[in-house]
């Protein structure tokens, strides 16, 4: 395979003429273009094979979806939130469909960090993918206990959830006040052995304020957005559709809001961003990347299409191939 | 890795009542694996509807490689499915969940409303003596399908057919007994049967319903309360889509 420097083609290579251009280059095999295409990205010193991960809470720890998805094809698996002890979550109904999206109020049900370490880490390590552990807590001490236990574990990165709208204590309470964001970030950064990503909420007046606070607190990256607080009424039963009354809105309905927030945050902080919010296709993912996201997470779309994550990875490669992009990093924040 | 979500051809789709439809699918892979009480996820062609619709399997034709689904139109998704014609395709994922296990010598098979169809394959597969109790609000459906496999007793809320009242009234009025209860229907009915089974010291397998998202056990949207701490969740919660939808009566709080 001859290594072709695609840059020399710039200027005359467009999607319309790529096929005839390629046909004039006999050693340039379009099917082997993957060999020279670099989809790897780096956050906090960790290299990911590609920029696609799962949005926390939609994918468990990957076990249930491993019948449908080859986890080794994903840049990373981001796990469901892990707390210091088992959480029971909210009353049902916990999920309800809405136009182009859904509301959920799971309430961070999880089996606790000890079971997570014993059961889920060994499972995920069987695959050629990175492990990002989403960490939840009701108090700062709770978060720190999980971070301390994970410090000794074989995981690649921590995503600190300070943005869940469905629990009364912890979660979003830490994510809506810049001082709190700074404090919790710096406290966790002191103890964590892995890079930390702070997951921010869109349910704030100014998301850039929270992003700056996370950066000042020593975060290695930022992920956004978590779900938007919403509500649905069941008019036939004349009651709230969700047991928790309110829930978090996700899915394509929130995508334009999420893209705009990624663009906004990318313009004020230097930290790498994991972008998410309604990504269901490679086209959607590329919007986030061009707005400034280094990685992207697929969430609600997994329910609609269990292989959505793999489809996004393949679609990004196809886009790069069609447009002659040799390195995904050329696209990150390219609209700015 | 199993390619479990497939585009599947519809062999027949007919109305049984104004809003209940019966659909046969050309689904040999699913038919081969499925057991009574399991369900499939049906996906809308309109991808603005993000969540799949979980529908229980009504009949499994292993030799013919077909499965039958009987569903009620309750919203946009099921409306779309009801309009599909023979020869059309639909995205189907399954079989999902944990179905009924055949046990006992004398069964009471009890269905309420749209909880009736999932009991048909079980009625076929259960070899012992069986009394089948079907509870409806008013309009009956699938009565004849069940008559081939056991004694059928009907209850209707409006008294238009059979015993006026609910399935428990029909059981008591007909002095029916059993060593195993199989039931599927609305939660208040299952709660009544859970109590009935406990009082009469009969084992009960109950098929639960809950709003679902993923259908594979990942999102924890569809949990029910369990009497003991569950091995997977480490709390008193079980996943209806994964450990269920069929549970023993003494396992769950309704």
Explained architecture:
The complex is a heterodimer of chains A (336) and B (254). Chain A has 336 residues and is of the alpha/beta class. Chain A has 2 domains: 1-36, no CATH class; 40-330, TIM Barrel (Alpha-Beta Barrel), CATH 3.20.20. In chain A, 29% of the residues lie in helices and 18% in strands. Chain A has 9 helices and 16 strands. Chain A has an 8-stranded parallel sheet with strand order 3-16-15-10-9-8-7-4. Chain A has a 4-stranded antiparallel sheet with strand order 5-6-14-11, with no helix packed on it. In chain A, strands 1-2 form a two-stranded antiparallel ribbon. In chain A, helix 6 (255-266) packs parallel to helix 7. Chain A is globular. The relative contact order of chain A is 0.16. Chain B is 17% helix and 36% strand. Chain B has 6 helices and 16 strands. In chain B, the strands form 3 sheets. Chain B has a 7-stranded mixed sheet with strand order 10-9-8-7-11-12-15. Chain B has a 6-stranded antiparallel beta barrel with strand order 1-2-5-4-3-6. A 3-stranded antiparallel sheet of chain B has the order 14-13-16, with no helix packed on it. Chain B folds into 3 domains: 5-96, Elongation Factor Tu (Ef-tu), domain 3; 100-208, Nucleotide-binding domain of ferredoxin-NADP reductase (FNR) module (Rossmann fold, 3-Layer(aba) Sandwich); 210-246, Dihydroorotate dehydrogenase B (pyrk subunit), domain 3, CATH 2.10.240. By secondary structure, chain B is an alpha/beta fold. The chains are: A alpha/beta (336), B alpha/beta (254). Chains A and B meet through strand 5, strand 6 and helix 8 of A and loops of B.
């Amino acid at each position: 395979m001859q290594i072709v420097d695609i840059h020399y083609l710039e200027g005359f290579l467009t999607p319309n003429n790529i096929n005839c251009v390629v046909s004039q280059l006999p050693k340039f095999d379009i099917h082997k273009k993957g060999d020279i295409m670099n989809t790897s990205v780096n956050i906090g010193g960790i290299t990911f094979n590609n920029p696609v991960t799962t949005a926390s809470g939609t994918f468990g720890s990957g076990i249930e979806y491993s019948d449908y998805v080859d986890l080794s094809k994903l840049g990373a698996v981001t796990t469901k939130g892990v707390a210091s002890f088992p959480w029971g979550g909210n009353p049902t109904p916990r999920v309800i469909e809405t136009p182009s999206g859904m509301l959920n109020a799971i309430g961070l049900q999880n089996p606790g960090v000890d079971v997570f370490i014993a059961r889920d880490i060994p499972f995920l390590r069987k695959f050629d993918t990175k492990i990002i552990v989403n960490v939840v807590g009701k108090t700062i001490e709770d978060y720190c206990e999980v971070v301390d236990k994970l410090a000794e574990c074989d995981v690649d990165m921590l995503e600190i959830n300070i943005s869940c709208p469905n629990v009364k204590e912890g979660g979003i309470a830490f994510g809506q006040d810049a001082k709190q964001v700074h404090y919790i970030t710096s406290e966790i950064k002191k103890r964590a052995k892995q890079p930390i990503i702070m997951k921010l909420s869109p349910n704030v007046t100014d998301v850039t304020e929270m992003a700056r606070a996370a950066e000042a607190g020593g975060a290695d990256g930022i992920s956004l957005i978590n779900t938007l607080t919403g509500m649905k009424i069941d008019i036939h039963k004349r009651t709230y559709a969700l047991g928790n009354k309110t829930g978090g809105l996700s899915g394509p309905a929130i995508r334009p809001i999420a893209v705009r927030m990624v663009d906004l945050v990318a313009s004020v902080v230097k930290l790498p961003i994991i972008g998410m919010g309604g990504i269901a296709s490679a086209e959607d993912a590329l919007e986030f990347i061009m707005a400034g996201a280094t990685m992207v997470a697929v969430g609600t779309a997994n329910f609609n299409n269990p292989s959505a994550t793999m489809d996004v990875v393949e679609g990004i490669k196809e886009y790069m191939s069609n447009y002659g992009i040799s390195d995904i990093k050329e696209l990150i924040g390219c609209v700015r | 890795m199993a390619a479990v979500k497939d585009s599947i051809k519809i062999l027949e789709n007919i109305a049984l009542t104004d809003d209940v439809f019966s659909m046969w699918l050309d689904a040999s892979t699913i038919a081969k694996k499925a057991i009574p009480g399991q369900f499939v996820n049906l996906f809308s062609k309109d991808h603005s509807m993000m969540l799949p619709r979980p529908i229980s399997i009504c009949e499994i034709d292993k030799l013919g490689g077909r499965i039958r689904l009987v569903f009620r139109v309750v919203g946009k998704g099921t409306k779309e499915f009801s309009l599909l014609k023979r020869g059309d395709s639909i995205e189907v994922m399954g079989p999902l969940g944990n179905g009924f296990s055949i046990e006992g010598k004398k069964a009471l098979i009890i269905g309420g409303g749209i909880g009736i169809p999932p009991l048909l394959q079980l009625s076929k597969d259960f070899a012992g003596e069986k009394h089948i109790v079907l509870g409806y609000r008013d309009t009956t459906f699938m009565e004849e399908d069940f008559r081939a496999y056991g004694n059928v007793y009907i209850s209707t809320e409006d008294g238009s057919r059979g015993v006026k009242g609910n399935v428990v009234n029909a059981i008591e009025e007909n002095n029916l007994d059993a060593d195993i209860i199989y039931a599927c229907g609305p939660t208040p009915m299952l709660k009544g049967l859970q109590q009935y089974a406990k009082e009469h010291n009969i084992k009960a397998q109950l098929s639960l319903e809950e709003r679902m998202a993923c259908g594979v056990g990942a999102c924890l949207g569809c949990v029910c309360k369990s009497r003991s701490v569950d091995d997977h969740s480490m709390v008193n919660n079980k996943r209806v889509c994964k450990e269920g939808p069929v549970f023993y009566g003494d396992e769950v709080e309704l």
